[in-house]
Amino acid sequence: MRPVPAIATAGATLVAAFSSPGLAGAAHVASATAETTPCRFLRLPRATTAGGLASWGHIRSLTRKGSRFELRFDPALWLEGTTAQRAAVEDKVIAPGEAVPNDYYVRDESHRVLTYRVPASARVTVLTNDSRGLCPTTITVSELAGIVKGGNPRHRRLFDRHNGLGYWISVVSDTVRSLDQQYQP
Predict the structure, then answer these.
(1) Could you give the CA distance from residue 175 to residue 119 in angstroms, rounded to a whole number?
(2) What is the mean pLDDT of residues 89-118?
(3) Which 3 state secondary structure label does DSSP give 88?
(4) Mean pLDDT (whole number) for 144-151
(5) Using alpha carbons only, what angle is made at residue 124 by residues 123 and 126, rounded to the nearest 5 degrees?
(6) What's the start-to-end Cα distance of the chain, in Å?
(7) Buried b (16+ CB within 10 A) or exposed e, 59-75
(8) CB under 8 Å to 65, separation ≥6 — which residues?
């Protein structure tokens, strides 16, 4: 397995994610203080509950519908390693023998949007810049809805001010349990 640098999450907890080709990701949790831990954010663990689905893509809209929200989501494939390499060659994005940049490739063939329910209590992380660097920051679904609409309700130092980065969503049935913004170099 090839280790991925640790990421800090709200509550000053470090999550170290490990990845290798063919492995969706596993997580190990250890405590640390926020004051002494530099934030380095490359990838979030893609663990989901039993019967759930983890999917990557772009948020097209997030609107309040009564006590919950409705997410319009454009799913895509986040590919890494050999899978990314071969898919990029097949899509004629790179030539055979060329390396895929940053060891990942996004294949988004259809741009067809799916609709999901999102409870107001769903966990959300976005990338912000603070004194430690680029960090995942936990926010509310309501705040994310404002960000998706082009605002910045809490005046955070958002890394992605134009809402171009994708998100990992964890879904059970038709309901999103978490949304985590993915760093892309």
Answers:
(1) 8
(2) 95
(3) helix
(4) 95
(5) 155
(6) 22
(7) beebeeeeebbebebeb
(8) none
The enclosing H or E element of 22 equals none
How much is the CA Rg of the chain, to the nearest whole Å?
17
Asked whether residue 46 carries a pLDDT value surpassing 60, the answer given is: no
pLDDT band at 131 (very low <50, low <70, confident <90, very high): confident
Which regions of 10-150 does DSSP assign to beta strands (E)?
A: 13-20, 23-31, 53-65, 68-80, 104-107, 114-119, 123-130, 133-139
Which among 114, 154, 143, 130 has a CA at the least distance from the CA of 12?
A: 130
**Half-sphere CA count of 26, side-chain side, radius 13 A:** 8
Lowest mean pLDDT, pick from 28-32, 44-48, 76-80, 153-157: 28-32
Beta bridge partners, 16, equal: 28
User: Is residue 169 scored above 50 in pLDDT?
Assistant: yes
pLDDT of residue 39: 62
The whole-number pLDDT of residue 19 equals: 30
Burial class, 168, CB count within 10 angstroms (exposed 0-12 / middle 13-18 / buried 19+): buried
